[in-house]
TrEMBL record:
GO terms for molecular function: ubiquitin protein ligase activity; zinc ion binding. InterPro entries: MDM2_MDM4_MUL1 (IPR051652), MUL1-like (IPR022170), Znf_RING (IPR001841), Znf_RING/FYVE/PHD (IPR013083). GO terms for cellular component: mitochondrial outer membrane. Residues 350-387 form the RING-type domain. This is RING-type E3 ubiquitin transferase. It is a multi-pass membrane protein. One of its GO terms (biological process) is protein ubiquitination. Its EC number is 2.3.2.27. Keywords: Membrane, Metal-binding, Mitochondrion, Mitochondrion outer membrane, Transferase, Transmembrane, Transmembrane helix, Ubl conjugation pathway, Zinc, Zinc-finger. It is found in: Mitochondrion outer membrane.
């Protein structure tokens, strides 16, 4: 039977190019076998990468933590809003006497600080006396950051000392409220009374050593903070009338936050409110980051589905063209014509999988070198023989 390749410009691979194809064939063979065996990486197309899972998990965890902290600070602001305000005077004792248990769970009072006994004196300025004293020695360093290629500040508390003496808040008519456990309280209740930075001077050898070690000591900062006698203090906590008739302000037993502040109540509440807003913004930010990761994964999933759908369409179109061509030739040459273009000769096998017959023509170069399955598995849609971009593929049929 006469046997020829159709198409004037269709050339079969020469022996040389066949060998060349065999060399590059290994990697192609791998992708081809992936397509044939249905490797999940290629065929299922969708699986969340480890980095994506880590990003998603982290952003969701952080948004959860931020939301929890937001709820917590929001409830603190709500409790502050609900807390009744009292002036420190004789009436306060009467109110507490009339209250069951002689205590108010959460109340706001304001008074002037006065020590019960000898006050603390600042070691730096003898004229300053207070009831709370805090001294801190902080070491400041510059550390080389290899990621940002710059020196970044780092500080470390080397020494901290806190002293306190018992004190009361005095009202307008000399009524006093004793403040218990002031060190457990939140809020700014001390002011900086002394600050000094001791700079370190270096010789040349030190500077060389610093560049080698990636750490520079800047110096040490001495800070002194005090709650001064005579300062006006806002206290938010549990008010209780003791059996001996003294009024006490102490940390609330119901777990609400205990506040002592040298600023007024409005500022204290405003600060807590901005903390809540900050946590809310962070929670929203992390949720959006999580959503962005999900969108990214979804986009990849959609893209994979699209590629698979397009390949399927292409495969169907190829089969249709193949069947059409066979029908036409059967009509022309009669029923004895070859049915499927299959050829058992070794030199007609696909150069990539070496098992299927070559059944497609790659255009525009016109090479006939592979089967349609392998063509679809080609990573870059380039002819495996001449590397030319494949613009179209048509079925090959032999008669
Ligand atoms: Zn093949
Ligand atoms: Zn080619």
């Amino acid at each position: 039977m006469p046997y020829f390749r159709c198409g004037a410009f269709v050339s079969t691979t020469s022996v040389d190019s066949f060998c060349a194809a065999k060399i590059t064939g290994h990697s192609l063979q791998r992708s081809a076998s992936r397509a044939v065996t249905g490797d999940p990486e290629e065929m299922d197309g969708f699986h969340v990468k480890i980095t994506e899972a880590v990003c998603l998990g982290t952003s969701l965890a952080f948004s959860g933590i931020c939301y929890y902290l937001y709820r917590k600070s929001r409830s603190t602001v709500d409790k502050l809003d609900d807390a009744p305000h009292f002036t420190i005077d004789k009436k306060l004792k009467d109110i507490l006497k009339a209250t069951p248990g002689a205590y108010l769970q959460y109340a706001v009072i304001e008074g002037t600080v006065r020590p019960l006994g000898e006050p603390l004196t600042s070691p730096f300025q003898k004229e300053i006396v207070g009831v709370l004293h805090k001294f801190m020695l902080t070491e400041h360093r510059l550390v080389w950051n290899s990621l940002s290629h710059s020196w970044t500040d780092s500080e470390r508390v080397m020494h901290q000392r806190v002293n306190a003496v018992p004190f009361v808040l005095v009202g307008s008519d000399e009524t006093t409220v004793k403040v218990l456990c002031p060190l457990q309280a939140s809020g700014v209740h001390m002011e900086t009374t002394y600050e000094k930075f001791h700079q370190v001077n270096y010789g040349l050898g030190d500077i060389v050593g610093q560049y080698l070690s990636g750490e520079k000591l800047k110096g040490q900062l001495e800070t002194e903070e005090m709650l001064k006698v005579g300062a006006t203090l806002t206290g938010v906590g549990e008010l209780i009338l003791d059996t001996d008739g003294t009024l006490n302000l102490q940390p609330p037993s119901n777990g609400s936050q205990y506040f002592l502040s040298i600023s007024d109540f409005g500022t204290l509440r405003g600060d807590q409110d901005s903390v809540a807003v900050w946590w809310k913004a962070l929670a929203i930010g992390f949720t959006l980051a999580g959503a962005a990761v999900l969108l990214w994964v979804g986009r990849r999933y959609y893209y994979n589905l699209k590629v698979r759908w397009e390949q399927e369409q292409e495969r169907r179109e190829f089969k249709r063209l193949q069947a059409e061509a066979l029908r036409t030739h059967a009509a022309v040459t009669g029923p004895e014509a070859r049915q499927d273009g299959t050829d058992d000769h070794m030199d007609n096998l696909c150069v990539i999988c070496l098992s299927q017959p070559r059944n497609c023509i790659l255009l525009d170069c016109g090479h006939v070198c592979c089967c349609h399955n392998c063509y679809q598995a080609l990573p870059h849609h380039r002819c495996p023989i001449c590397r030319q971009t494949i613009s179209r593929v048509v079925p090959l049929y032999n008669v």
